[in-house]
């Protein structure tokens, strides 16, 4: 497996764990606000492979608790299960970031006991998933199925939404709240302007708007929070 990025230590990416973060290239979404778009369009070359990564990880026993796997979209990789199994065999925990578009592969990882924490992006209300994900006709049933897999599973998880001024409004958070009703945890984070973002016209919402959206979703998910504000 080719690895497109490696953050050797983080206290932020894996809740309550000291971890490293692995970035995998490729994604089936083309979100206009994506801040890792160089991993989506293939413009960023791999930095290492799984063999070298496991050598690195073996030397971090006792220093790291786990590995956060992000992207891109990791579930696009047919060899993700074997990669996660290799991490677990070394005694580390595995956190997966996903866009929720591959519920079957997600369930396979659950059933095999290969993940210890999942963070799923909720891009928007279902009616606006197309403009937010960059897909012309997204199959939103996949999103709902992934939500069910995660909520019905027995491992810690979170849902999260990157909020963009031009893409989100109050009604969207009413709909999202109903979609993930009584979820374990939900986080709202502001869109960040970066040079790598595909649509340079997009802007972050105000702090006041974020607080308003948070109050809306708290009616449906009491454990909702703003992240990075």
Helix content: 25-40%
Number of domains: 1
What name does CATH use for the topology?
TIM Barrel
Radius of gyration: 17 Å
Largest sheet: 8 strands, mixed
Shape: globular
What portion of the residues fall into strands of 2 or more residues?
15-25%
At the first level of CATH, the class is Alpha Beta
The spatial strand order of the largest sheet comes to: 2-3-5-6-7-8-9-10
- Count every helix, treating DSSP H or I runs of 4 or more residues as helices: 8
Under CATH, the homologous superfamily reads Aldolase class I
The span between the termini is: 36 Å
Structural class: alpha/beta
**Second CATH tier, the architecture:** Alpha-Beta Barrel
Output the helix-strand order. Answer: EEEHEHEHEHEHHEHEHE
Q: List low-pLDDT spans.
A: none
Tell me the number of strands.
Answer: 10
Please, what is the average pLDDT?
95
Write the layout of secondary structure elements.
Layout (H helix, E strand, L loop, with lengths): L1 E2 L1 E6 L8 E5 L13 H4 L7 E2 H9 L7 E5 L9 H10 L3 E6 L4 H9 L5 E5 L7 H5 L6 H13 L4 E7 L6 H10 L6 E5 L16 H11 L6 E4 L2
Parallel strand pairs: 3-5, 5-6, 6-7, 7-8, 8-9, 9-10
Antiparallel strand pairs: 1-4, 2-3
What does this structure look like?
The chain has 229 residues and is an alpha/beta fold. It has a single domain, classed as Alpha-Beta Barrel (TIM Barrel). Helix content is 31%, strand content 21%. It has eight helices and ten strands. It has helices spanning 37-40, 50-58, 80-89, 103-111, 129-133, 140-152, 170-179, 207-217, and strands at 2-3, 5-10, 19-23, 48-49, 66-70, 93-98, 117-121, 157-163, 186-190, 224-227. The strands form two sheets. It has an eight-stranded mixed sheet. Strands 1-4 form a two-stranded antiparallel ribbon. β2 and β3 form a beta hairpin. α4 runs parallel beside α6 (140-152). The radius of gyration is 17 Å and the shape is globular. The mean pLDDT is 95.
């Amino acid at each position: 497996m080719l690895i497109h990025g490696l953050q050797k230590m983080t206290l932020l990416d894996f809740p309550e764990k000291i971890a490293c973060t692995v970035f995998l290239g490729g994604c089936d979404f083309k979100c206009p606000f994506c801040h890792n778009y160089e991993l989506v369009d293939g413009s960023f070359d791999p930095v290492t492979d799984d063999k070298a990564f496991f050598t690195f990880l073996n030397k971090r026993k006792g220093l790291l608790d786990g590995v956060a796997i992000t992207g891109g979209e990791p579930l696009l990789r047919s060899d993700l299960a074997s990669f996660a199994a290799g991490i677990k065999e070394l005694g580390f925990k595995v956190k997966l970031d996903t866009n929720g578009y591959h519920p079957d592969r997600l369930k396979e990882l659950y059933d095999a006991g290969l993940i210890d924490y999942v963070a799923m992006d909720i891009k928007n209300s279902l009616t606006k998933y197309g403009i937010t994900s960059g897909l012309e006709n997204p199959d939103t049933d996949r999103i709902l199925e992934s939500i069910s897999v995660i909520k019905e599973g027995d491992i810690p998880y979170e849902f999260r939404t990157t909020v963009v001024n031009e893409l989100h409004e109050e009604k969207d958070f009413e709909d999202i709240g109903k979609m993930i009703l009584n979820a374990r945890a939900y986080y709202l984070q502001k869109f960040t302007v970066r040079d790598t973002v595909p649509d340079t016209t997009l802007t972050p919402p105000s702090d006041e708007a974020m607080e308003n959206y948070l109050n809306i979703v708290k009616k449906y998910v009491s454990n909702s929070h703003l992240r990075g504000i």
